[in-house]
User: Fold these one by one.
Assistant:
Number 1:
Amino acid sequence: MCGIAGFLGEGGRSDLERMTRRLTHRGPDAEGFFVAAQHGLHLGHRRLSIIDLASGAQPMATADGRHVIVFNGEIYNHPELRADLEARGCVFQTDHSDTEVLLHAYREYGEAFVERLNGMWALAIWDTEKRRLFLSRDRFGKKPLYWFHRDGVFAFASELTALLEHPKAPRSVSRLAILKFFAHALIPAPHSAVEGIWKLPAGHNLVLAQGAAPVIKRYWRYELVEDASLARRSDESLAEELRELLDRAVQRRLMADVPLGVFLSGGIDSSAVAALAARHLGVGNLRTFSIGFSEPTFDESAYSRRAAEFIGTNHASEQLDLDTACEVLPAIFDLLDEPQGDNSLLPTWLLSRFTRRHVTVALGGDGADELFAGYDTFRGLHQAETYARWMPRPLHHALRALAGLLPVSHANLSFDFKMKKGLGGVSHPAPLWNAAWLGALGPDELARVFGGPVDLEEVYSEAIEIWDTCPQPDLLHRTLQFYTEIYLQDGILAKVDRASMMHGLEARSPFLDRDVADFARRLPGHCKLRNRTSKYLLKKALEPLLPADILYRKKKGFGTPVGAWFRTGRLAPSSTAAVVQKRLARHQSGRTDDRLFLWCQLTLDEWLKRRKASGGFV
């Protein structure tokens, strides 16, 4: 796990060193550089040593020097790929480096080699003979990759702040991206917070021939297409196959030359990963870690202890409260390269810091909710569809206003919060529902807050495209497609990547294994959501591994009590804009619940303040 940076065109080694050293937290163990001044090529790498500690240094070149790579990630099927490549005559210089496997695979199979990979990656390969740069990002976007092409310079980096170290980098905030940020509580790819800097979307490659414009192509999409052969099989048969696929996915991710553990919240997903890991490592040999809260409705520590005792892990936990939050938030914002709308960034950062004191790699349960319909949103889809079909539209506004009179509660997933978000979303056109349910501002609020006309089709373009292009045009599958393509990539995975890598901790996600994901996307919808039971097949698959009080308990989610914290006044955005101060005052008085807006505004304010201080941002 590492940080990568580089550019083709104007610039020197000092520019590369500044870019690369901005990524030191991602790779604290070593740094490396490759410069081909005659071509204007510069590649930099920061290393977190996980696999082949002795011979896996980067940038890495083929024996003849034709191809050079910088790579961030892990390839879990690299032993099988290595064996295949050796059978084809490839000669390896390293003992078991997955980086060298990528070099030989690119040479043997061309750009299509990424379709053979099972893992997470952001990589760049330079072909000296063709003078061509090839970039790729993994299927779900586990590893970040930003780029810009401007004034004859193409540059890329793992994080936005590293890219801003190049003197040719754009430095203006993107109004459209900030609108999207408040509309979704994330910035969907390919947009970034800076105008003219882009994210390479998940499942895409980028090719740049020297002197030409970048060419971007999608090589994979999580496409939901129900497989008739799976629909004919029994629940028991499907559950057994899913359990076997998950077991192999976890086993692959136990590969490491450094200490390893598991994030354990006590929920279904992390408990499943811990139970399967313990089967391979042996009872008492697995370390698990969790974070608790002083606020009872957010605290899951009792469940994590219950799961740890049942599985037989060596468990440790730490608690988060408002004092701790105020203490650590400045350190988080110092390294945060882009505004993040998910306030669970805070406990994820704390959990990663705590975990990194003991291990270098941690497995988690990310991806299961998106693949198997685990969120409360999925359980409410039928009611939302019924409401939209039968409730006359003129009554929508009145019912929203009525719901607004419900007393405000800052408890985790409280009734009033879900009711207000639900009615607020469904009062808009159906393609906007999912974004409106997640976002900090509704479609009807954006123009009022931003003080000018807003093109809603442009702001919600990604959500609309997914709605229009989903192969199975029912509400469940359209919602699953939205969550996997947008919320998972630019919400969940971005949060976990930044929080873990701020401490040089590698986070792995067995549920996003290539084989598990392919199985999940082909499952019938009723295997995921059945009679308001979410994750139906996953729960059935895990029955031999976990107790019923873990499997079938009510979902809490990894929330943070920022609603209550904002009311104390110790947590607040720094913006003096009238609209922000008005919303803060209403929230503090208890008249409204603006926790999502206030958190997004807080992270935006802190990000802007630090970027202006460090780089002359405009």
Number 2:
Amino acid sequence: MSDQFKKFIVGKSREEIRSNIEKLLRNEVENTVKSTQEEIRKKIAEVIEDAKKISESVRQPEKIPPREQQEVVYYNAPNRGISADEIAFAPESPDFDTDADRAMNDKISEMRKLNEIFYNGYLLNQCAEISIVRQGEFMAEVTDDFGRQAFCGISRPIYGALSNPQLRTYFTWRTDVRRGVYRETDRSYVTLYCYELMNKIGVISAADALGRLLAVWEGCREFAGWLDDTMPRWIKDFYAYNDLSEQYPDLCSCFPVKAAGLSGSVSELNSKNYSDKLDYFMENSSYKLGESVFFGEETKPLLNGAAEAALTALDGYFLERDISLFKLICGRMKRDYNWTPFAGAYVNLDRMDGFRQVRVSPVERYCVKRGEAALELFEPSPYRGFIGYVLKSVEAVLRKRTGFHHKITPNIKMVINDFRNREKLVEAVSAPEFERAITDAVNAWCDKNGIFPKKAKGSAEEERPAAPVKVDIDVDKLSRIRAEAEEIAKRLIVEELPHSDDSIAEIAGRISDEEFSVKIAEYSEPQKNSTKGEAAVGGGWGELALALSPRHIAVISELLKGSAERYCRANNILPETVYEEINTLSLDCVGDVVIEDGEIVSDYEEELKNITSGEV
């Protein structure tokens, strides 16, 4: 064993020997890597030298000298020379070169610096909402008396975008406004002043700013009618973002004009005022009450009062079931996703007191949705079928209470179809109490206002068929009636027709026989009260039977069987068109429609069966 090896292992533990061996191996590897890298570098250097020798023998194009590094210029630095704004805006004319003019221009130049920041030589404009506040506060107390008016057509003006003459024109106009003088000027200047007020620049409080906004709206109306379109929303947004409830408890009453979005009828209905709302209901009803034969100038006050009684009763009915009648007959509040605070204006929200939930009116309110400020507006979406059912029910009761010769029956399917997929509403309108609520309310209203059928002689009870009355026929009286009729007939026919005596006697006898038969029928048949059947048997149904075409009669027959839609499809008939034709004829002949919502009106089923069977 060599001395070197002994020195390596003598007096050392196994771990030390292992560690030394690992160091030796690492040193060998590192030396090998270094030697290899050195050889690679030499090879690369040789290749580059060979390439240079080859390139020197080939002619090369002239090299372009390198571009000099441009110095970064900071225009905000002292002794900076000409500014960007001085290049963009021409200097003042010699006429405005007094000490006051130079002082004002220097002030404007200082203001412009508040909007300039640079980074690596590129101009970056700050956020307009921030810049208008910084520059506006800097110029808040400035007054001016500029000798001319410079035109400005910028739709959303900021101070930095206006030239010196434009700015001086604005400050001169603002000086007059603060004195209460509203001179006619360009839209841009009025808009910029509104931006100042909404950012609470040059005012002592939010209430002062709102008061000045209202004053500008009123003072500039003669030449700035566009304010009526933009100012209401700006003022409402300002009211929602600042606590002004003590100074302005009723915001809408402060408006110089009626605020957009308010509806008198809807507002009153929301306050449960159902008086004189018949026109609103007729406009939003699926049942065309105005086309009914019962509707007229005399019956409209009755319908108006009865509708108020019915809706008052329904309000209590639905309130017990936690349902809003207002949403059913008018609509509901819905979020306006197009709303943003102070749309079209530069306003820094950080200067506001903070957003508040405000009920501006019954059809407009500010609220919080999913943690964000939101605006909710009223969306008209009445249930037209429900309103139609209410109006038809009211009309049905009034027809009966006034002794109208035609009766109608409302169809509850109008409401069921309207409330489809609304289990709570379907359950409410399916209850028997719902159908009785309107009838009972209108009957009570009729009792209170003394509306009864003429034949009832003031009785509030419903019409009931009277028992048949036995009548004794006086034959002698009938003979006299027949003789008088014969004599009258002879006189009429002699004057009008050039017939012989035999023809006259024959015609007179025929007329007398007809009148005699009529009188016998009047005295011999039992007397009955006026009912639907009596009104229906009149000549109107006979006229209707003659007016109906074979196609109409076939459709009516299928309606009675419940298979009209299948029949119409098989024969390429549009159901709505043929129904409208039949109803038009029935209105002309019997004074009422016989088909509603694709079904035969139950009151007229018997008469229509007689028509289809040929008995009428």
Number 3:
Amino acid sequence: MAKVLLINPIVREEDVPRHVPYGIALLAAIAMDNDHQVQVYDANAWRLGDDVLVQVLQADDWDVIAMGGITTAYGSIKAICKIAEECCPDAVIMLGGGVLTSLPRDMMTFLPQVDVGVIGEAFVTFPELLEMIDGGETAWEKIPGTISRKDDGDFKLGPMRTLLEDIDTIPYPAWDLFPLEEVYFKNSEVLFSEEGMLASRRLDINASYGCSMICRYCYHLGIAGDMRYETDEDGVVQINFDQPGAYSRASRYHSPEYIVGMVKHCYDKYGINFIGFLDENLMTMDQASGRTWLSEICRLWHENGLAPEYEYDENGDMKSWTGVHWSGTSHATLCNPEILKTMRAAGCSHLVYGYESFAPHVMKLIGKGATPKTNVRSFFWTLDAGIRPIPNQIIGFPNEDFDAIRMNMDAWEELGIVVKPHFATPYPGSEWFTVNRDDIAAQYGGDLEAFIEDLGDASKISATICKNFNAIELLGLREMMLTGDRRQIDHYEDIWRRNHNIPDGSPSTLWETAETKAVFGRS
């Protein structure tokens, strides 16, 4: 059987490592279930530099060196691939995850060391690749969901890999292969709620794959039916993602029994006291189930003895608890007071809401289906249920304007909060990357790889897609928003209007052109 080294690349170097790489942990478990010999080097957890990476690569005669991650891990992946080829010239180097799936041909061009890429879901593709290696073959194109190289330097695509329907057949992640005690449990705290701040043994799980929303800034990693194989006019098969007006979605979710069984396993084996749901949006899955999924998870949470019981100090403040608190994501239009109260009783401590904006014209363009009213309503519903609502906001959308900035500040005053917005970032695979690709590359002198290497978690500005403001203006306006300085914003709008020959009293936008309407699918 194959000797497999799975490497987790470094991501978010500005923060400590907080999350066991769920996808790699799942693939490790799947490979071991198929009797392969698996080791993991978690470069993100250890952060010990290239010298240790070389030692790991030289520690055995690896048949396979596999890695993957999100696009923001590209810089680390690029460095690992170069070292892996030098240290293990006979090993098959594989790459998967969102970084490859979003731009398969580009990534295979940027990373000539990669022998085969896994496009989309790897649950079935990865063990099939390992089986082929065991058989001494390298005809990767026979396996669905792969991209590999032709002798002439072009690429071969295997057939499209269909999504796994029964995701309850996936084994639990191989958490034992990762430094839980040494690294991850030490970084358990989540600074969004009291319970999250007191978490000392946290693990994260994925309860679902996919999302029913069509948010134009979002990329679903090819797991939500958003990826299509299409033949272009030259007869070449291309992998395409969301484009204006062409959407498809598939939402799959684990059964409540599987989810709670996995949490109970973690509670009994690792003594966890907090679970983070990594899902794109818990409420979309609850709606897809007919409003039974979350309530059944909560019922089983109680039934399995996972609902927290508290110990308080002499001042009545919570000191500790038994059981497992948890957190996840919610959606402003899909939550309701009843399910929120049920979730709180089962230990839900905080929910992240992608509010994005409180400006109606911006929200309509995003495609999420929310409104300022539903945003505000969900905020107070969640507070009333005893759960902390964590607002996530973004500025720099294509039609962001002065009115939108002021509407966001008005909403903060109504809610009694201040939010530091992220910047609208056209990540590869999203609709707004697809329609702006040429302009994005132009902002980096035509070098798309430079853009990818520059990508972060959207707290840092990279390529802009805003038609009204450039990067410097967005940075300055965000600072004025955070300090509540409406005078400076008003003053700058006067300057901005003079610079763009837009008279007072007319809309403060460069957005309303036939070209932008067509590009962004707005009629």
